[in-house]
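Supplementary Text 2. Reproducibility record for the structural model of the 450-residue chain.

All settings were left at their defaults, and a single model was retained for analysis rather than an ensemble. We include the record here because the model underlies the residue-level annotations in Supplementary Table 4.
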Amino acid sequence: MTTAQTTQGGAVPRESVRRVALASMVGTSIEWYDFFVFGTASAQVFGRLFFPTFSPLAGTLAAFASFAVGFVARPVGGLVFGHIGDRIGRKTTLVLTLTMMGLATFLMGLMPTYAMIGVWAPILMVALRFVQGLAVGGEWGGAVLMATEHAQGERRGFFGSFAQIGSAVGGLMSNGMFLLMHQLPEDDFVSWGWRVPFLLSIVLVLVGLFIRLRIMESPVFAQMKETRRLAKVPAVELLRSDARNVLLAAGLYMAHGTLFYAMTVYTLAYTTTQYGLSQNTYLIGLTAAGAIQCLTIPMYGALSDKLGRRPVIIFGTLFIVAFALPLDFLITSQVAVLTWLAVVISICIGHNAVYSPTAALYSEMFPAHVRYSGASLGYQLGGAIAGFVPLAAASLVGAAGGAYWPIATLIAGGGLIGFVCILLVRPLAKTHAHESAVEVGEAGAEVSSP
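Retained model, structure tokens:
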């Protein structure tokens, strides 16, 4: 009997598919909550607390550089946990990544500041951020594959999008917690209030582990393990046969990743420092966008099942490019409602149209024996580049004398890169995401024992 329960015909029961999809959403929500609280804190307080000897601009740049460290670690995590996921299993890997992320985030809530231990404070912060990056580097690929490999059939776009919803829910929880903490007096928030969202992580992780330990292993991996058809070194096999798709996956990430981190991290700091809007004002827009994404992400996933991944993603990339000019106007209007509109439209329409279908797309771009490694490495290489967007944005705006147009241009450039990449992605076989282990072995996987 395999670790994944299937019907007599080999299909996974619909109830199991839904349960796994929900588990993927809960797990990624917690992982992204942990990852995003750092981004919000870096935009709001880390410059003051960990780089107090710098000028305000230099402190912000240093805080964003620390934020980017997590993205440098993401491809490393993709390689390490991709190997584990392709060799040992999707479920085991997801338990490891969730535990790592939760512990690192909890310890961030206990970090002493520069005033307490001097230069060791930012060093400790960067080290923990690196651990966060390793964990999230292995999380996304596993969560997506658990959902899409259980789904099989024609609804991979819809069920795969549940893992993508986790990003929206995680951001929603992160922004909600900081909105709540901002109800404290400013001195209390800077003193201890910012720590609460980090410390809360340990409770969320325990809930996530309870849920993940109760789901079944991916039926695709279970079949490969049963028939002893596993790649000995998945990364080597991947780069030997599918390096092109890894690069295209990384480029495609640039479309939604550039927009997302420009809007959720840098612009939060920009509207506060440049126009004097309260941090709560912009967080309201981010929170609204997060709530609406819970509807638009599965909508785009279902749409990609009907129309195909490519048409939906092409629409999203072109929308991102076209919306750059209105975005510049809305952000610089200094009107709260228009700022909220900019956040909601850019994220819920442009970003989500690209982001949602990639869960199914990436699983369809790689054969099963290297799928965890391929999906993770491609996605996280793009993430490593996009992670420097807040840092690059701060530098560009400084050079432009405070103007926002360089950021709008940067976002449009990311959309254009994504557009070119989706045009170059090779046609995808409809059955590719749930091929049998025997077919995988015939396709070139090395025979080895589990």
